[in-house]
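quick one: magnesium ion bound model?
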Amino acid sequence: MAWKTLDDMDLDGKRVLTRVDINVPVENGEVTDATRIERVGPTVQDILSRGGKPVLLAHFGRPKGKVVPEMSLKMLVPAIEAAFGTKVHFATLDEAEVVIDACDAGQVVLLENTRFEPGEEKNDAELAKRYAALGDIYCNDAFSAAHRAHASTEALAHLLPACAGRLMQAELEALDAALGTPKRPVLAVVGGAKVSTKLELLGNLVEKVDLLVIGGGMANTFLAAKGIDVGKSLCEHEMAGTAKEIIAKAATAGCEILLPSDVVVAREFRENAPSETVPADACPADAMILDAGPDSVEAVKAAIDKAETLIWNGPLGAFEIAPFDAATNAAAAHAAAATAHGQLVSVAGGGDTVAALNKAGAAEDFTYISTAGGAFLEWMEGKVLPGVAALG
Ligand code: ADP
Ligand code: MG
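yep, here:
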């Protein structure tokens, strides 16, 4: 691996500036879901158990370089203390040096919202120097913020011995296993609403994977590009040229593309709307395609059986409303079972994808589910993430 991990660091007696993503949902000052805080636990406990002093750097919301009291990280102190079972000292940047010095071994320091500083989102070198003066080691555990070059995610990494935290490490290892140095054949499943939001992702994937399953609303755009009438389906007709380019690029790269052969259509976009299954080229003019049909699902399952590695972004249908979650659920269950049997490395990410896999009850068995959102998608697009590059 090109980056160091906590294993490579001597932490004893060291102040470890640890960039985390604890941008948790808060209602009336109460944390309603502490998952993001809990996921940083292994890193914080590792630093503590090896005699280091974790000094947490994090952003919250979008204060845009100004002090916005409702976005102060101070409100997270009780939730962090509960999650880590230790005293948490809060400090603004001006108070930080004194508070860090006074903090006892076994305790944690939390610094104020990094985005209160005008230099943070500008990747300002002076701000990074102020941060660096507060620590001996830099540990980045915020993969989900790594697609942005900010002072606490990028510039700072160059000023101190730097390493990936446990969560970042797990994410990087999973992503490397899926697209960096994967076992072949590699299958990508890409669904979701639109081609236009996933253009770069599709372009990158066809050059890296052996088989690409296209589903969801974006499959309609590909069907339409082939001259098929998709009725009232969600479809970006103006993207037909782009879809054809992707098909051509895939042919050159030796990547097979699999589109739905049958589809589930309905006249209304609502739960339990009356529906029927028709061949993919037989969508009635007054209907819309809301899911892949059973033959298509069998083809996806067969593709999963042949693959050693699966990378998945985007549901195969309108999974929020039954019964149009059927194809997504069936494919997810099949991938989960293959993974559980040790036959598949499966990595998935994307906001709606994570929701869909959780709904399908399949998330547990996947090798890795990325909750990183934008950073995961940019990585699938083949981009170098500045926060990751700076660790190398
Ligand atoms: P992610 O957030 O995982 O990247 P997207 O945001 O690209 O995924 O896509 C998810 C959305 O795509 C869901 O809201 C889903 O309802 C929608 N979708 C999938 N298939 C269809 C379809 N055939 N028609 C309309 N919407 C669809
Ligand atoms: Mg989405």
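The longest helix spans residues 166-180.
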